[in-house]
Structure formats: structure tokens, C-alpha cells
């Protein structure tokens, strides 16, 4: 499965969380044994947890003198998942503004 492509295709926060958890469950124990124990994400229930893991993993990779490819891949996945969560939130906000009639775009900058 192309996990990064799948991230770009989810359309709701719930689908994003489900995909993140599917990613976590898909890796065998051998994979996780290459990740430091305190940097092994648990299943995520909220977007806030997703962002927290993104920050933790980025800090872990940044502090590592020689991070392995598994750690780097995990970090990249969580960076992209966190970014996708922000995109979905922004899209939802734009949709709410448009539906509320609070926002009008004239297309001419006025």
C-alpha cells in the first residue's frame, strides 16, 4: 500500500485517523523493534493526539545522531498525516464559511 498517497486521498478527519491506525497496525513486530520504545505511537483517537505524535517523532528524529530508515519513515508518515489533518480542517472551515454566507469571494480581490 502507498501510505502517503492514501493520506492525500482521505476526505474526513475520521477517515484520516482510521488510516493512521491502519498504518500502525499493518507493521510487524520486527519493524517496531527498530523504533525506540518511547517513540512507538499508540493508536490515535483524536487529531490532537496525531499532532502530538508528529511533534514527538520529529523531535526524536532531530535529536538522533543516526536515525534508522524505519524511524525516518515513521516520522515522514506522521508529518504528512498531521499536515493532511490541517488541510482537512481548513477545508471544513472554508465550507462552513461558504454555507453560513459569512464569506463572499468576488474573485477580483475586493
General description of the model:
The protein has 5 helices and no strands. It has one domain. The model has no long low-confidence stretch (mean pLDDT 90). Helix content is 67%, strand content 0%. With 110 residues, the chain is mostly helical. It is elongated, with a radius of gyration of 17 Å. It starts with a helix and ends in a 10-residue tail after the last helix. 17% of the residues are buried. It has helices at 3-9, 13-26, 29-32, 47-63, 69-100.
Question: How would you briefly describe this protein structure?
Answer:
The chain has 110 residues and is an all-alpha fold.
Q: Give the helix tally.
A: 5
Number of strands: 0
Average pLDDT score: 90
- Compute the gyration radius: what is it? 17 Å
Keywords, separated by commas or semicolons:
single chain, 110 residues, mainly alpha, 5 helices, elongated
Write the layout of secondary structure elements.
Blueprint: H1 3-9, H2 13-26, H3 29-32, H4 47-63, H5 69-100
Amino acid at each position: 500500500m502507498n501510505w502517503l498517497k492514501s493520506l492525500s486521498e482521505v476526505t474526513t478527519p475520521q477517515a484520516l485517523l482510521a488510516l493512521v491506525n491502519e498504518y500502525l497496525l499493518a507493521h510487524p513486530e520486527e519493524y517496531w523493534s527498530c523504533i525506540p520504545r518511547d517513540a512507538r505511537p499508540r493508536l490515535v483517537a483524536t487529531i490532537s493526539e496525531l499532532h502530538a505524535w508528529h511533534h514527538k517523532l520529529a523531535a526524536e528524529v532531530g535529536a538522533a545522531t543516526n536515525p534508522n530508515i524505519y524511524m525516518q519513515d515513521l516520522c515522514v508518515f506522521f508529518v504528512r498525516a498531521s499536515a493532511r489533518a490541517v488541510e482537512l480542517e481548513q477545508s471544513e472551515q472554508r465550507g462552513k464559511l461558504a454555507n453560513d454566507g459569512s464569506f463572499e469571494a468576488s474573485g477580483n480581490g475586493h
